[in-house]
Amino acid sequence: FTSGPASSVAGWFFRPAGSLDVFRITTHTAASTSAVLNGVYTGSTAVGAAYALFKLEYALASDVVRVIDPFVLSQSGLYTRIWGEMTAMSPADMARSFPVNFVQAGVPSFYSYVGETTIQINSYPVDDVHCEYAYDYRPDDLTGAALEEPVIPLERRSLLGDYALAMLLDT
Questions:
Q1: Across all residues in the chain, what is the average pLDDT?
Q2: What does the H/E/C string look like for 11-34?
Q3: Rounded distance between C-alpha atoms, residue 17 and residue 20, angstroms
Q4: pTM of the shown model
Q5: In 23-115, alpha helices (H)
Q6: Residue 127 pLDDT level (bands cut at 50, 70, 90)
Q7: Rounded CA gap, 34 and 132, in Å?
């Protein structure tokens, strides 16, 4: 980099201008002008050469069990403008329909899971985007503390016993 990005861009993607080669930045320190790529860079080097630096993978809340589609994308400002929605697709469909080498700037419309709580989007926004999503959450573990109550309300816990009995009788 001619001047190092203010924050670390480890995990972001790097594409030299005019090239279809895309590299993941595996290591970078904030404000550093150098980074380690996940592959061998074979292109020419030049001071001040143009490149695209973009982020495609985002962490979700740590307690996500399942996202309830869709994500709602908006841009904040004087008035909130709704940009659109992002819906899920399988990682295989994402790789087939939106290969990283051909990713373009724009409003994302699809995402796929690349980890338990990490998603990859199909394009990278050039403006700040606010993303909202609803999800089923993983409740905290019970510790046995006084007045601690499971997520299932007391009046509904008998349903667990009924369900377990039905499962036993079904076998």
A1: 89
A2: CCEEEECCCCCCEEEEECCCCCCC
A3: 9
A4: 0.79
A5: 91-97
A6: confident
A7: 34
Between 157 and 166, the more confident residue is: 166
**DSSP 8-state symbol, 151:** S
Share of the chain above pLDDT 70, in %: 96
Which tokens in the block code for residue 148? 């601690």
Report the distance separating Cα 109 and Cα 161, nearest Å. Answer: 42
pLDDT surpasses 80 at 81: no
Q: Are 134 and 67 in contact (CB under 8 A)?
A: yes
Question: Which pairs with CB-CB distance under 8 Å and at least 24 residues apart come from 31-34?
Answer: 31/4, 31/5, 31/6, 32/1, 32/4, 33/1, 33/2, 33/3, 33/4, 34/1, 34/4
How far is Cα 71 from Cα 20, in angstroms, rounded to an integer?
A: 29
Q: Mean per-residue pLDDT for 100-109?
A: 93
Apex CA 94: angle with CA 93 and CA 99, to 5°?
A: 120
Query: Letter for the amino acid at 109?
Result: S
Task: Enter the tokens of residue 3.
Answer: 């001047």
Q: How far apart are CA 132 and CA 151, in angstroms?
A: 23
Per-residue DSSP letter, 93: H
Alpha carbon distance 129, 76 (integer Å): 8
The predicted pLDDT at position 35 comes to 94
For residue 141, give both structure tokens. Answer: 């573990």
Q: Which residues pair with 136 in a beta bridge?
A: 66
How far is Cα 65 from Cα 108, in angstroms, rounded to an integer? 22
